[in-house]
Amino acid sequence: MQIVLIAGFWLDGDSWGEVTPTLMAAGHTVHTPTLPGKRPGDTDLAGIGLRDHVDAVIAYVDALDGGDGADDDGPGSVVLVGHSGGGTIAWAVADARPSRIERVVFVDAIPMPAGTCINDELPVEGDGVPLPDWSLFEPEDLTDLDDELRERFRAIAKPEPVGVAHEPTRLDDDARFSVPVTVIACEFPADLIRQAIANEREWAGELAAMRQLEIIELPTGHWPQFTKPVELGASILTAIGG
Predict the structure, then answer these.
(1) Other C-beta atoms within 10 Å of 104: how many?
(2) What is the pTM of this model?
(3) Which residues are registered as beta bridge partners of 106?
(4) Which one, of 132, 76, 138, lies nearest residue 104 by Cα?
(5) For residues 159 and 70, what is the distance between their CA atoms, to the nearest angstrom?
(6) Torsion over CA of 65, 66, 69 and 72, rounded to 10 degrees?
(7) Are 42 and 15 in contact (CB under 8 A)?
(8) How far is CA 208 from the centre of its chain?
(9) Do 156 and 77 meet the contact criterion of CB atoms below 8 Å apart?
(10) Of 87, 31, 22, 12, which Cα lies nearest the Cα of 233?
């Protein structure tokens, strides 16, 4: 199966480096695209918006052959895995290509409702949103992210284009709700998500409309690709059924 891993804010495709071996060992083909504004040599972030990231992943998915080359790998054999803000990107791609996507896996993320943005409260510098001071994050975000991992994270972090953080997401096709979804809940327990759905919380509206939703837990902070990469790989395998 083709698995496309979509990084969240401040991270490029290489940030999945300790997760991919587990997926590849299980026989999957893994893709870790780096999105516009975070590629080597990208310095001008002006004009890069959320839709540019969505369109980049759509083009990536469209270029895939539908699987590992086997005849029984049909056109719906692409799994999208989105971490944090990458989950909103993954969901918009599923909205654009619902028949092409086998499953969407949200890693400590939920799909933002149409018309809302990923995060317009982070400090902005020019055309970018740099990785802020750790004091701006909730304690739950930073669980297991020790000093060494924080230093490593900051060393590779790239400013997120402000348009990606602020531009409202666009969703057009209700067929997206037929795409199976798994949420890997890290910093908050699965019951909290289920309660939000039951209580009709606005931020959980997309989850409530899904026809096939599974929630599995991987207790750690917001960046399991750093704090529990092997376990995250195993959780993704569980989500896709193998």
Answers:
(1) 26
(2) 0.94
(3) 82, 183
(4) 76
(5) 39
(6) -150
(7) no
(8) 19
(9) no
(10) 22
Count of beta carbons in the 10 Å neighbourhood of residue 173:
12
Supply 86's token pair.
């990458």
Which of 132, 147, 191 has the alpha carbon at shortest distance from 9? 132
List the pLDDT tens digit at each of the 242 positions of the chain: 999 999 999 999 999 999 999 999 999 999 999 999 999 989 899 999 999 999 999 999 999 975 433 333 444 589 999 999 999 999 999 999 999 999 999 999 999 999 999 999 999 999 999 999 999 999 999 999 999 999 999 999 999 999 999 999 999 999 999 999 999 999 999 999 999 999 999 889 999 999 999 999 999 999 999 999 999 999 999 999 95
- E strand or H helix at 156: helix 147-156
Residue with token string 């895939």: 64
Q: Is residue 47 a contact partner of residue 74, using CB atoms and an 8 Å limit?
A: no
Q: Which value, in Å, is the radius of gyration of the alpha carbons in the chain?
A: 17
Q: What letter does residue 131 receive in the DSSP assignment?
A: -
Nearest to 28 by CA among 103, 87, 97, 96: 103
